Amino acid sequence: MNGLDFGSRTYVMGILNLTPDSFSGDGVYNDVGRALEEAERIIEEGADIIDIGGESTRPGAQPVSLEEEIKRVVPVVEKLAKKIKIPISVDTRKSEVALRALDKGASIINDITGLECDSRMTEVAVRYDAGIIIMHIKGEPQTMQEFPTYNNIIKEILKKLTDLVNRAEKNGVKKENIIVDPGIGFGKTLEHNLEILNNLSAFKVMDKPILVGASRKSFIGAILGAEPQERVWGTAASVAISINNGADIVRVHDVKEMKQVVRVADAIIRNREKINA
To answer: Which of 49, 51, 118, 247 sits most deeply, having the most CB atoms within 10 A of its CB?
Structure first.
């Protein structure tokens, strides 16, 4: 997919938030020039993929209209695609946003609803032969953190993701175009998130690349008593553990720092895998 050789190393997905209400306080809003500058910085710091989103999906976030999301995302994708060589992912649950972004040069759809919110999303992915990130979420952003419960979180997430992947493949999405994401922080408590990271290797049975998006999230803040911008080293710990337990992509805000974590973790872990092969 897009020249990504999964299994050889861990890829860093840099986050570009085109929103005024990002939980991490790093949103670049309503300024295409500034957004492009931020994207170039992210790439210079070592991002392998850039993930562009125009609608916040933090807990309690309010939906953004289709028109507003298109206005935020598409001009940036169009200009950026002409300047960079790394894959562009669009973080959206709306098929029309995905279609327009793909038409302007994006190549991956990052859908937090696992293709369930918009029935046309699968059709768009197939039409453009796009990569698709299928994520697990319990509930929706407005309500997902209101007492989420599971009987067996790993089994339940695995079953849901398997069902979503099977449905996507049945509807024409190529097997090699699918990435799975267990959805850290999306309808999960602190304990749930820790259990997912501890048992990430359980998702390897799906034989799909695994993406982990733990960067700056509230479970790290709860452990450290730290605000989002002060969660860099807590994020680093989660990134290293994720790689050890099977992550293929880590989605992060602090690209420069996490690129170093990834390089060292890969040197240790993937060398170990080669020796034991």
So the answer is: 247
